């Protein structure tokens, strides 16, 4: 716990906003804060460069509220993923400073002091992939990256992709998101000279098999320089892309 956090705990006790017992718990544990239902990792950003993120699916609105309140003591940005609208509405009643995005199903608080670096291009095969793409885009932005969105440029109308190639090639990292058979990843991988992170989605007709078909296509891509995350994992793709983007950006400072 740094001096600023220590002073805040002492002030909260003085203002009777925190009990002495609760303050002792905060002071006695330098790595996580204990809640009845969660342990908040207060030093994750110091260890990894990225703050803890809330996975909202399976958590109640009350639990998300409690976790956010605890996280605000140790980090300036907040990201909760996979939060459906009804749950978000309940959270916002208690925490109106958060912003909800219905497409990506994220709750966020952005660190206004964090400088955006580099550029991550997020490319989707179809409009139906945008939900996963927006989870990636919001995550990347919260982590301090510039993001360029290029949506609906799949191989069924490949001229649409070629029209955006100059923009895509300017990015340090490219996230390609596709359902159906997932062919867009191989095409993009053969046209750019930066890392490509592939995200298979569960979008498609019967033989898409809930995303297994594009997952296997991407894993078996003949284009080099492609890494693949799990089905519908926009968050994971953005996390990896952010790490790569920041390394590249630091090299050019």
From TrEMBL:
Single GO biological process annotation from the record: 'de novo' IMP biosynthetic process
Domain PurE as annotated: residue spans: 118-250
GO molecular function: hydrolase activity
InterPro entries noted in UniProt: P2CMN_synthase_LarB, PurE_dom
Pfam families in UniProt: AIRC
NCBIfam families attached to this UniProt entry: LarB
Descriptive protein name: NCAIR mutase (PurE)-related protein
